[in-house]
Write a structure and sequence with these properties.
mainly alpha; elongated
Length: 93
């Protein structure tokens, strides 16, 4: 998952363009590690500690460098979906 998360973050970075190209690699790494954690919780149907994440350096970097992009809007939607576990399927006959 980490490798696919990194590729997704790189894809997003290319889409965003110069906003992220010139920042140091350690900042990019922090950003994509935080992004991976959110994606893992979202895909796994698990709860995610939004408050702790929003206090992290990763999130501060995300706000600093890519706030207002489609990526951060998608993240806000994922925050909403990870407030409770979604590990069930409702089947109606």
């Amino acid at each position: 998952m980490a490798e696919s998360g990194k590729k997704e973050f790189e894809r997003v970075s290319v889409k965003i363009g110069g906003r992220i190209r010139d920042i140091p690699d350690y900042i990019k790494e922090s950003m994509y590690n935080g992004y991976i954690k959110l994606i893992e919780a979202y895909v796994g149907g698990e709860t995610f500690d939004e408050k702790t994440f929003k206090e992290s350096k990763a999130y501060l970097y995300i706000l600093r460098f890519i706030d207002g992009t489609n990526t951060t809007l998608e993240m806000k939607k994922m925050f909403m979906d990870t407030k409770k576990e979604n590990l069930y399927i409702k089947i109606e006959y």
